[in-house]
Structures are given as C-alpha cells and as structure tokens.
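Changelog-adjacent note: as of this version, every example in the card shows the full chain rather than a window. The one below runs 89 residues end to end.
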Amino acid sequence: MARLRLDAREIVDRESFHDLFARELGFPGFYGRNGDAWIDCMSCLREDCGMTRLLLGPEEVLTLELRTPPTLAAACRRSPRRCRTGAAS
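Full-length structure tokens:
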C-alpha cells in the first residue's frame, strides 16, 4: 500500500489545497487547479499518462494521511465562497 503524508496545516483555502497536491504529487504545469483537474490527475495514478509522478501498481491502494487537522474547515466557515469549486478568487 502506498501512503502519502500531507501537512494539512498548509490547506487554508482552495488555492492552497491545489498548491499542496500539485507539489506533492507532481501534477503537470498545465494543471487546471480545480476539482475536475484534480480528479483527472488522481485518476492517472495507475496509468503513466504524465499527470503525476506517483504511479501505483494494478492492485495498489493509495492512502492519503493528513498529518495535522486541516484548517480548511475553519476557513470555509469564515468565507464559504472561497471554498466552492469555480468560485471567483
């Protein structure tokens, strides 16, 4: 089983979520930084399609481990518009 440990303290809004995943998983420079683009990249974890530097085996499962409680929930309660996919920054 593959395990990816992320420091969730970095996630304070939608932009920082995408920053963290793009950096840690090696998403390409043209990564669209939205929910659909994130799903596209995460869907390529078993295919070498150039969307991530992590490649899983056919039966391998990726476990995402958040090292610390995320501050995203608190940030979204303060400013829900910033956390919606497609919301203007």
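Structural remarks: The first strand starts at residue 2 and ends at 6.
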